Amino acid sequence: MINKKVTSVEEALNGVADNMTFMLGGFGLSGIPENAIAELVKRKVNGLTCISNNAGVDDFGLGLLLQGKQIKKMVSSYVGENDEFERQMLSGELDVELIPQGTLAERCRAAQAGFPAIYTPAGYGTEVAEGKETREFDGKMYVLEHAFKADFAFVKAWKGDVAGNLIFKGTARNFNPNMCGAAKITVAEVEELLPVGELDPNQIHIPGIFVQRIFKGAHYEKRIEQRTVRQTS
């Protein structure tokens, strides 16, 4: 059994450098790797390409990296909650590649599985398909999409063990599982880090083979992106 535990987020991010490509798990603000993002902000690495479902909000999540203009390109599906993202995109400061949400997930999963590319019907006949190979299968047209290539994947789980096995909780089980093993190095931060044998094998969502480094995170804010409550009668 390989012990993949590192003692701190600083150690977990060893090797991070300018101009790298990162995958970052999460959906909205649910399940984002808060500690890893904070460390990237602290290190002031620049020229980053970030693959993430969304770009956080102005003062939290990936929005913190955008504030420092550390990101040169965002590869995302939904970016409607971040005014600074909008400003940088419209001004030409930020390169943006918008991808259908399912295609984003599958390009991550293809990289995880070692597939170079996938065919998907999403985007055929639109700007999404421009310049890409298309092919007909059983009378339906598909677009060829290449698997992502990333240097690091940063994910956040509820529980993990020192071998890298992970359990996600609720809606934090979003893009995180697909990004595990989809980059050269996967770094997992967890709320609870346990010895091997403490996790129920039947509850494990991601086996440790997909994770290279794991650490116990701290001070999670777990913000709610859009709080909706029922009005009192």
Automatic annotation (TrEMBL):
<keyword id="KW-0808">Transferase</keyword>
<dbReference type="GO" id="GO:0016740">
    <property type="term" value="F:transferase activity"/>
</dbReference>
<dbReference type="InterPro" id="IPR004163">
    <property type="entry name" value="CoA_transf_BS"/>
</dbReference>
<protein>
    <submittedName>
        <fullName>Succinyl-CoA--3-ketoacid-CoA transferase</fullName>
    </submittedName>
</protein>
<comment type="similarity">
    <text>Belongs to the 3-oxoacid CoA-transferase subunit A family.</text>
</comment>
<dbReference type="Pfam" id="PF01144">
    <property type="entry name" value="CoA_trans"/>
</dbReference>
<dbReference type="InterPro" id="IPR004165">
    <property type="entry name" value="CoA_trans_fam_I"/>
</dbReference>
<dbReference type="InterPro" id="IPR037171">
    <property type="entry name" value="NagB/RpiA_transferase-like"/>
</dbReference>
<dbReference type="InterPro" id="IPR012792">
    <property type="entry name" value="3-oxoacid_CoA-transf_A"/>
</dbReference>
